[in-house]
Design goal:
Number of helices: 18
CATH superfamily of the largest domain: LmbE-like
Number of domains: 2
Shape: elongated
Strand content: 15-25%
Oligomer: single chain
Strand order of the largest sheet: 3-2-1-4-5-7-6
Helix content: 25-40%
Distance between the termini: 57 Å
Structural class: alpha/beta
Largest sheet: 7 strands, mixed
Length: 538
Amino acid sequence: MGRTSGSHRCGWARRPRGRRAGGARPPRPSHRRRDRRSHRLARRAGARTRPADDRRTVRTQDRRPAHLPAAASRSARPRGARPQAGRIVSVAFDHRDPGTPEQTWADAAPWRSAPPLRLTADAVVVLAAHPDDETLGAGGLVARCHAVGIPVTVVVVTDGGASHPLLGDERDLARERRSETVEAVADLAPSAALVFLGFDDGRVDEQRADISERVNAVLSGFSDRAVLVAAPWWGDGHRDHRVLGEIALDLGAPTVEVVGYPIWLWHWATPDAVDTSGWRVLHLTDAERTAKSGAIARHRTQVEPLSPLPGGEAIVHDGMRAHFLRDDEVYVGAPPTEETSADIAAFDDFFRRHDDPWGFESRWYEARKRSVLRASLPRASFARALELGCANGVLTAELADRCDDLLAVDASEPAVRAASGRTRDLANVRVEQFMLPGAWPDGRFDLVIVSELAYYLGADDRELLARRIRGSLTDDGVVVACHWRRRIDDAATTGDRVHHELSRSLGLHRIARHEEADFVLDVFATAPGSVAEREGLA
């Protein structure tokens, strides 16, 4: 669980200049014997004089909020803000304090009316900031996955070696805790995959980018499968837990659902001060509770004192441990996302001020991407094509020789004017202004291009867009979608999510896909079959 005292901080248009596409309490006496490994870890107690982590010794802000707010929607935060669990509050606690008794929680049972945590995912990934987080917060979930045959992966981010800084070499403690975690996870789910990332304990925020990259790499192995990610709750009051929870919330994969598991909440909060609106509950079977209890006991360096000297106290004392022996595990759903489509006025202003918006004409990236799109068209020519979000018409002009009739539309009047000027000598091209997807052109099309547009649309508009496209296709129709994959601060969603939604909503056959770090391109068709198959070559 790492070092455990501290403060709790919970709190359609990209910007036009950006890319369109792109004093400590004495320990209680203990008569329990500790094995030689524990003595080895404690033998140099007092030898190191560097101060303990400041969050461990702070006891002057012993405040609790009168009420713990519901998680704020992600769209309600200022642009660029990290996802936090509500308005900013400060909570200081010490793991050596008795904390809120488990009986108080059991009598109130605020989770009683929460809906169940439904396991519908193809795989489960449990993220742990420190060794034992996975067992305390989600041990029942890991055991459940094993029981029902859902593949589960446990990812331990730090080595957990910084919890007792006065007790000798952190590397010894880190090795012990890794061994304990292997034993604990084996008790819960013998078939589980276990990944140790080995980052420094207590420095998750400083290593945020690298941790995020490694976690995303783990998730990439699941391809398009639905994955439930359980991470430390972002409102838990421990910095490492908060940051790892935020990293989980920022995962961009469209098939990932994120829930948070509280740990220190049960220590510093009270039942009358929690908002349960986002809670979900996993009711454990007798076998799961037994497995979890045994797994917790495996974490000896967490649940037993490492030394009788000050600074050697157990991280998880008996009162704290009791919270995790109950019949239920609580998970907190991710803050709701309220997506709205972009304000077209920002685009109008941008087009008026730039002759070459987003470098359509000057960047090799853009020229190459257009070439990939053209080469991905499954037929040499199309009878009637529709380009959605034509911008200034650069792609429009390059599509003209592949279409008998091409209608290019955009919501921005300056963009329509620029595209019209660019294609004025192309008799088979028309450019019109449409406020998509509410307004829509008449007729049916055998080719629809949606490029660098859909991530500017809110969820409702994206759903309507897919219905409009599907309803406009001819019996032999083709849809080509192409979108920037990297983060766009002011977009409603990501390119990857757009393509996942289109694949599901259109109900078409995906006959081609091009994916690289910068963009993704999908070709959907009403009928299956590759180009070679259609020409009798395969």
